[in-house]
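Sample A.
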Amino acid sequence: MDFLPVFLNIKSQSCLVVGGGDVATRKSRTLLQAGAKVHVLAPECNESMQKMVEQGKVVYHPEKFTSAKLDGYKLVIAATDDMEVNELVSTEAKKRNMPVNVVDAPDLCSFILPSIIDRSPVMVAVSSGGSSPVLARLLRTRMETLIPASYGRLAALVGSFRDAVKQRFDNTNDRRKFWEKVLEGPVTEMMFAGQDEAARGALEQAINNGADMVEKRGEVYLVGAGPGDPDLLTFRALRLLQQADVIVYDRLVSQPVLDLARRDADMIYVGKKKSDHTLPQEEINQLLVRLAKEGKRVLRLKGGDPFVFGRGGEEIDTLMDEGVLFQVVPGITAASGCAAYAGIPLTHRDHAQSVVFATGHLQDNSIDLNWKALAQPNQTVVFYMGLTGLSIICEQLVENGMSANTPIALIQRGTTPEQVVMHGTLETMPDMFNSSHIKPPTLIIVGDVVRLHEKLSWFKPEKI
């Protein structure tokens, strides 16, 4: 171990930064985040530093460094582009046993500044001992995805109950077991889901009941899987995928997303397509209830966003009636994901000032929509599940006022390597589609913004 990892309390302490350039500015901001009173010493400073001075965030001393300038400070950081000055700062600080950091010079440092993951009061520091700051930053980026932002709130909650737990459990080992059981259970997920009061109540109950009485409760995670590209998953979706005991997924969830699930999780397919439902919706609702009541962590994975034509509302309605814990994790809906990957902005100052989502799902060979409202000028209309009724959509939009020359695009398997974009007009698209190989899942976008596809198209996957 080249350096002893230490977290230093510098709140309200005067700290000195020698230098007035970009690096000195970044180091000053880090010290400010830790609550320090920052003084900057340099003959001149850049515009960013000057703004902090004007805002009263730092105290500026327009002087050259001398050893006497170290008096009264808790620590010092040397961040000049003059190595002689940096070496002098290091030598004089060490004479005074003052912590000193010299940027990009580990040999001159008595402490180094790591890459920081700030989940205050939880702090995680990643360091390469000064040998490769870029590597440390890359590791920090990886870890950011594994440590939810809500850990700070969770730590604060736990801290507020430490004394109560000490009174409840005399033995240190019993306290450790209690906290392990609680923090691996529903209290943590309640905090992550923003249910702070419920988490506090559950923790109070756990303390009263004792460690052996902590209830094993199942939970349902209603998660949006996005339009297909696994890189579009949210951090929370990825974390829950990797901890769920059971994955209940539908037809629109891509295989690369499923591949991110915990390897030993049970996988249950409940997909639906036209006239072919693996399970009716009511049976899916009851399946989620049953699995959760068995104490399992159930991840209900839906393509796109669960609240945009995903029947997520119906499922959580049942969960609430049955008293099952749940949380909802939004996903990138197909409209925004597929449109973005096709180079079709859903709104644009010159083409569309509003956007409408509609379902093109056929019911008794008809599509019951407010066609007048959809056929408005300067508006983009996105149809989900509309491929079977494409000719009806085109016909009705024209009959209700849209020009037959209005652009329309079909986006098959958007955001994935199998993405195909076909564009035409309301007049030409039905025949184009009939002679094509376009299949579901396909999104339909109607509006003037489709004209931008040829210019703005950027995602062009190689077809294997």
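Sample B, a different protein:
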Amino acid sequence: MAFIGKKPVDVIDATTAQTLTIEENIVTPSINSSQIGGRRNLIINGGMQVAQYGTSVSAKTDANKIHTVDRWRLEASGATYDVEQSSDTPNGFLKSQKVTLDGAFTPTASQYFIPFEQRIEAQNIAHLAYGTSDAKSVTLSFWIKSNKTGTYVVEFRNSDGGKQWPQTYTIDAADTWEKKTLTWTGDTASGTEIAVDTGQGGAFFWWMTAGTTYTSGTLPTGWEANTNANRAVGVPSSLADNDEFYLTGVQLEVGSTATEFEHLSYAEELALCQRYFVKLNTYSIGYTASGNISYGGRVSFPQTMRASPSFANGTYTPQSGNAGTVGNVTVSNQMTHWYNVSNNWSTGVHIGLTVELSAEL
């Protein structure tokens, strides 16, 4: 049996083999309240697979540093902590990021602990159309686990528009993976537009503890101008030694409903990460057996980077196992996809570089 044209769909018997031919457009008000094709997740490396920086670091006290897992930045002031890429995950995930306090931490007024943060390139979220009547809602979903229950805050900051909207969630059970979902409605206010450029358009912050500089105000119920006192209202006033936090499965998508996590292959996720950071290990460009030699060459990047990169580790070394030293290294014409290097190498050195290139936001 076949139906052609405007036959009502409700006459179709799903238990009988039939053909339905529709000669007009199909209009549906919603399919899962979100797009059904293309890349949905606006977060990069939300499954914590890629860790070019390394898989662990211990006893760190630096503020505003990125450690281990690519695209995930840890901000802390006053705390000491360990970070690692972990295999402790909810079912269906391969990796998480784990952050552990190295000693009890009671922040002073201006101190804080944000173990997870991702900054988003403006042109990747400009389509949210903030500052217009068509501003889109977004939904953030993530899996989190901790030995410390309580109320915590995730803050969405519109960096270009100068606005913030922190929201609370709770960790209900200790040492248990829990999925959390938060939705932000689009900001239609004039002046909140997100630029179509390579700068920082937005950021998400997972606040775990903070001093009164960030907790003494009132938690907003919508978009507001950036106000430090309102950013982390409700988080614990202290953390204990060995308090630990795991995060994975982070997805940000257009719409008011969270869909299943969008798993990308490792190769796809790595390519996205290499726009912001790339590690070139012993990148050989020549060899001299004896005597000094001046050499110039071009090093190409595996991906076009967000901006002309800096050399994150600031070091240039000979290839491992070869005698000699590197001298007079000069880098010039740094571009988003290559740089020139010239240098004077001493006797018996492979002309190779071990460098880390950063174009992080």
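Observation for Sample B: The chain has two domains: 56-272, 275-358.
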